[in-house]
Amino acid sequence: MTKTIRIGIIGSGGIARAHASAYRKLSNVEIVAVADSIEGKAQAFIQQEQLLNAAPFDDHRKLLELELDGVSVCTPNFAHHETSVNALNAGKHVLVEKPMSVTLSQSIEMVDASRRSGKMLTVGFQPRYDPNMSLIKEIVQSGKLGSVYFVETGGGRRRGMPGGTFIRKELAGAGAMADIGCYSLDMALHALGYPRPLTVSAYTSNHFGTNPKYHKEAAHFDVEDFGVAMIRLEGDIVLNYKISWAMHMDSLGATMFLGTDAGLKVTPAGTGPWSGVWDGSVGSMTLYNDIANQHIQSTIPVIEHGLNLFDEKVKDFVAAIQDDRPAPIPGGEILYNQAIIDGVLRSAASKREVTIELP
Ligand SMILES: NC(=O)c1ccc[n+]([C@@H]2O[C@H](COP(=O)([O-])OP(=O)(O)OC[C@H]3O[C@@H](n4cnc5c(N)ncnc54)[C@H](O)[C@@H]3O)[C@@H](O)[C@H]2O)c1
């Protein structure tokens, strides 16, 4: 008989609804508790989401005293570290929302807690469940491109700056990079097999966020709304990365993998003021190579899938618990993603190339 998987949700804001909805669709899951640090919010969430068997808590540590198999960490970025480490130390598997945390040292501690406890730490990059994303990795890993020496990724919104906890450094850690940039980094690094980042030379700015003409919370805006970086990866690969929440431009272009035998261009999906958004949504792809000295350009059509990617990531977390499988999107990998964001911030502040030190 299939075991019932007992789940707790920490942080009951916007994204927690997507988690609750996905868990509710799984017959082998029971959401037994919800915690939110704002008094009464967990209780209201339980009622709105009709999780009538769930217990509400204001303090996530109380929720962790329950017998649970796994928790979804859906707090703002600043609380990912504390809640995830406490959950792992309490013997629960963790699905933490992206970005992994606010600093590299926090992410290292999270990975350590996972190793020590033997519990999985998986990070919520739902675009991984898009079959088009899998196809990018399959093409890059197939060797068809030859040796990949240059990757360009990122993108941005013409206008699309969030507010609230997303624009305060003490709560979010970083701005556009943590919100949407971590997705494009994940896409590129995942396709390459997550090589170690070595150095970063970066520039960031916040000309739009701090201007009341463009943002109504300009007075509180202290993260970057634009970032660009050149990152050296192991294997003599260079990654050019750029991300923008707001700009006077329609798009920052496509994602490209340049290899010695072929090149792959991934066009971002999306139209309108958010056109050119690169937050993990994949448009069509084009493969460039030579055949008989002719320049060949082949279009790879978008795979239509109809999957709800949020549902897929939650389903895979539950299946990994049930089947005693390793983390689907391991914290140990995503550490490199966080290391790059950390390196971008350090390099931009010092106006110098910085080295990335990893355990
Ligand atoms: N995967 C995605 O597509 C996606 C989309 C949106 C947001 N996110 C991520 O999800 C996270 C949450 O975003 P959101 O939009 O739901 O934010 P939100 O502000 O709507 O909700 C966060 C909730 O966490 C609560 N909280 C804060 N600290 C807490 C603590 N220590 N313990 C318990 N609860 C605490 C807050 O009171 C709030 O209710 C962020 O890290 C964000 O980057 C991911």
Protein described:
The chain has 359 residues and is α/β, with parallel strands linked by helices. It is built from ten helices and 15 strands. The chain has two domains: 142 residues, NAD(P)-binding Rossmann-like Domain (Rossmann fold, 3-Layer(aba) Sandwich); 194 residues, Dihydrodipicolinate Reductase, domain 2, CATH 3.30.360. The strands form two sheets. A nine-stranded mixed beta sheet has the order 14-13-12-11-7-10-9-8-15, with helices on one face. The protein has a six-stranded parallel beta sheet with strand order 3-2-1-4-5-6, sandwiched between helices. Helix 4 runs parallel beside helix 5, helix 6 crosses helix 8 and helix 8 packs across helix 10. The mean pLDDT is 95. The site of nicotinamide-adenine-dinucleotide has 24 residues, from helix 1. Nicotinamide-adenine-dinucleotide (NAD) binds next to helix 1.
Number of helices: 10
What small molecules accompany the polymer chains?
nicotinamide-adenine-dinucleotide
Could you give the order of the helices and strands?
Answer: EHEHEHEHEHEHEHHEEEEEEEHHE
| Low-confidence blocks of residues | none
Shape: globular
Cα gyration radius (Å): 20 Å
CATH level 4 superfamily of the largest domain: Dihydrodipicolinate Reductase, domain 2
- Name of the CATH class of the largest domain: Alpha Beta
Strand order of the largest sheet: 14-13-12-11-7-10-9-8-15
Termini separation comes to 42 Å
Please state roughly what percent of the residues sit in beta strands, choosing from under 5%, 5-15%, 15-25%, 25-35%, 35-45% or over 45%: 25-35%
- Residues in helices, as a percent range: 25-40%
